[in-house]
Amino acid sequence: MNTERPSIRDFDFNLIWEYFIQFDRQGPGSPDTTIKALSFIDNLNDESKIADLGCGTGGQTMILAQNTKARITALDLFPGAINKLNNNAETLGVQDRVKGIVGSMDNLPFKPGEFDVVWSEGAIDSVGFEKCLNHWKKFLKKGGFIAVTNLTWFTNDRPAELEEYYLREVPTIGTMGENLSILQNAGYLPIAAFALPESCWSDVYYAPQEAASVKLLEKHAGNKAVEEFVRNMRIEAELFSKYKQHFGYAFNIGKKIDDDNISRTR
Ligand code: SAH
């Protein structure tokens, strides 16, 4: 495989967003899996606070808003996504308890212990699973929950072509078991982990992309950067259909361990 192939990070941010902003979600996921993950989280009420990090245009944010009474702060780097999210919140009539803000996941503008839940779908790998679990913990209340999806190996032996592609995108990608250890070592009790079904990728993520790619190529006819971007997205989609038994996303749900009373003997 061509090792000179660009990574998604090499493309212009505006081009990536011109493509992705038209979709309801910018990563694999679905209302059903968001609701399933939410079912592991107890005691949410109208005073609870959820942070949804790397929220994109808020596909999962609206599901959280419709299935809890909590107040939700949704954060993303991209202002256009946050505008769309805030408009969608108004359309759904949840603007009083859902606020989108621009910010970075690796430097959160929140107070320590502010949140009952930290949520993040399809975004943590761009900063790093372990790094974020450690950084985000201080913003959780005692006994607060974390629920994130991340790219995960589903098998122990993977085809070289697949490994080569994804190790460039996400150098820290691990198996379900490795991720649970990282969660535990970061100070959370693992509550649940489940692999997202294939339809979260094929139906939600890739199906709308083909028509969108054709439209993008037409609009920017002759633009080499756009052609390269579309080629990259198509390679990624092909790798998925060829090797989907080896990898995917998993939800990892943990509960912050209250370590106030643990005496350190080591
Ligand atoms: N959660 C959404 C979006 C996933 S795409 C969904 O599942 O549909 C990943 C998102 O993470 C993008 O919106 C991107 O802008 C955002 N992102 C990437 N790095 C970020 C960072 N450092 N801080 C905040 N958001 C980031």
SS element count, helices:
9
Bound molecules: S-adenosyl-L-homocysteine
What is the number of E strands? 8
At CATH level 3, the topology of one domain is: Rossmann fold
Structural class: alpha/beta
Distance between the termini: 48 Å
From the alpha-carbon coordinates, what is the Rg to the nearest angstrom? 19 Å
Task: State the major sheet.
Answer: 8 strands, mixed
User: Please, what is the CATH homologous superfamily of one domain?
Assistant: Vaccinia Virus protein VP39
Highest CATH level, the class of one domain: Alpha Beta
Shape: globular
Describe the overall structure:
This protein is an alpha/beta fold and 266 residues long. The protein has a domain at 26-197 and 245-258: Rossmann fold (3-Layer(aba) Sandwich). Helix content is 41%, strand content 21%. It contains nine helices and eight strands. Strands 1, 2, 3, 4, 5, 6, 7 and 8 form an eight-stranded mixed beta sheet that branches. The longest helix has 21 residues, at 199-219. The chain is globular, with a radius of gyration of 19 Å. The protein starts with 12 loop residues before the first helix and ends in a 10-residue tail after the last strand. The mean pLDDT is 94. The chain binds S-adenosyl-L-homocysteine. S-adenosyl-L-homocysteine binds at residues 25-27, 29, 54-56, 59-60, 76-78, 81, 104-106, 121-123, 126-127.
